[in-house]
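Before relying on records like the one below, remember that each one covers exactly one chain. Contacts with other chains, cofactors or solvent are not represented anywhere in the record.
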Amino acid sequence: MAQRYVRIQNQEGQIYYGLLQLSLDVQVLDAPPWLQGQPTDLTLTPGNYQILAPCAPSKIVAVGKNYADHAAEMGTPVPSEPLIFLKPTTSIIPSETEIKYPPQSQRVDYEGELALVIGDRVFDCTPEIAQTKIWGYTIANDVTARDLQKQDGQWTRAKGFDTFCPLGPWIVRELNPGARLQTFVNDDSNPVQSASIDQMVFPPDVLVSYISQVMTLLPGDVVLTGTPEGVSRLQLGDRVRVEIEGIGRLENTVATR
């Protein structure tokens, strides 16, 4: 199994980065791993920590319509270049916590996605260099108030509510380019989304290169790479689970605000 890098909080409220062991003990690092954090002598045992979202980015840069089938289900053509937007960092929540359904919306959708974690400052770089700046991979759910997205004509409100970016549960360094992304709702064993990540219109290195020509990416920043077809609405009480082969699963429930 690949090493799993986590961000945790102990019972005293202190936050650490660490390595999650098979025993579920966490070996604490002295800094974020992308800043050359090294193992310390401190180990936290299960029950003495809570897993948080795996990083605390300065920004979340997301990509729209990056799978052709999803663009088609939205009734739009595939963009000729990456379609980027920002989600606020206040939308981040960890796995096993609640997505809060905002009263302003009548339709909230899941969007399972692969997330990239940036390991080094990136500005105006080629795809070849961009690939070396991707430190690791995690899972995201780009929760979207679909009715507000259509109503507003731009996406800030629809994708910016608190709790609208479940992220985690941990970061891995390597990922098979053909890994499968699947989303499940409640106890249905049939995925509502299922695609190989190599079906992206613009692959991760191209996305990071493109974004870097617009804004500087900093260590710990997150890039959401788009969702495949199969998006649909969530209801109060639903449990939504996004799985990516080689990473794990991100699971959240939907609750009233």
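The mean pLDDT is 96.
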